[in-house]
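How a chain folds remains the central question behind the approach discussed here. No coordinates are needed to read the tokens, only the vocabulary itself. For completeness, the protein is quoted in full, as a sequence line and a line of structure tokens:
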Amino acid sequence: MSDREDPVSLGYQFAREEEARAAAADLDRRFDEGELAGLRIYRVRWNNDFMVEATFPPGVPPPRLEDARALLGESGAPVHPDDLKDYKRATQEGPGGLPGWVRRLLGS
């Protein structure tokens, strides 16, 4: 077992929704509830790509994280952890569904 204290989130970007859903479903089948704490698919509004976020609880062995990376990396591109955090924060900002920084960028 690992001595990690914090959950680990992996983010992978996919060009098509079908690819993202297939990768998420495959991950869900291969990992049990004790290994996979959360699984979410985001639509990236500005480029119409899709992002899969898989969250693993503390204590998941590093080889299992590598298995998840390999599975998601078959058709997806890894997203830097900071970019994943920024994207999640941006999607939760502001009223009306658009993050404040996007509204400012678009001049609205």
In short: The beta strands are 8-14, 38-44, 49-56, 77-79. Residues 70 and 76 are 10 Å apart (CA to CA). The first strand starts at residue 8 and ends at 14. The chain has a mean pLDDT of 84.
